[in-house]
Amino acid sequence: MRASCEALLQFGARTLGNFDCIDLHHCHAWGGYSASVAVVVGESALHDEGGTGRPILLLHGLMGSARTWRRQVPWLREHGHVYTFDAAGHGRPAPPVLSTEAFVEDLAAALSPVAEPLVVIGHSMGALHAWCLAAEFPEKVAALVLEDMAPDFRGRTADDWAAMISNWPQPFETRKALVEYFGPVAGQYFLDSFEQRDDGWYLHGEVETFRAISAEWGDRHFWAQWASITVPALLIEGEYTITPEGQMRKMAERHPHAEYVRIEEAGHLVHDDQPEQYRKVVEEFLHELT
């Protein structure tokens, strides 16, 4: 492993343990980008990011936010009407029962203003919610793009990383302090996600909520939900994935209309770690849908 990766490996070691949802073995700082302006639809956490044509929905990962997609929104507008979504428990109240079904019900309710089936693009937790949405509400989903998530993490625990998150030095008083602590890629992810207050940046949800969300993944699998889906799907896995070995390939093998792509030199945040490669494969998939 290259020396330049050490800081991010330390980040993974001190935060997320067996559910290392932000561990990035290779990362790159970004240049400039055009941030989109979200418009809240009603009282929900669904944000209208603009564009025209088929609806495209972006779902973030655990401890993320709708804003973590802002580098992808501009080019996705060229392919449709883009929406982003803040999951429950991420800057807003969590559902009473912390189950995947509850999060999917919350998402489905927020999508009521969108009449057409959506192309749903999800990262990590967002990918799981995407295919479970397609399983439970098939009329809402036209196609799926799933990034670095698998159906079966049974046997893994979240306790160690939850304890480590509790010990993060909050608030992070400056942007520089936050980025230095997490590294450039994960640091930007958290700058986009954390709550900024007068004295600095804070985690935008409860540690126990995040622990419970990921702990469920260690207790059950989601193969049945995946098996029920027939819409076209693109599965994207980073070279340095967090998923159990071979599972995303098996997902593609068991699906009649799925394509599997492995992105070299990418960690878990493929869309930010290797943005050009990610864009290329997603745009090719979107073109094939038309």
UniProtKB/TrEMBL annotation:
Keyword Iron: no
GO molecular function, one term: hydrolase activity
Domain AB hydrolase-1: 56-279
Keyword Zinc: no
Keywords per UniProt: Hydrolase
PANTHER family: HYDROLASE ALPHA/BETA FOLD FAMILY, PEROXISOMAL MEMBRANE PROTEIN LPX1
Protein name in UniProt: Alpha/beta hydrolase
Lineage: Bacteria, Bacillati, Actinomycetota, Actinomycetes, Mycobacteriales
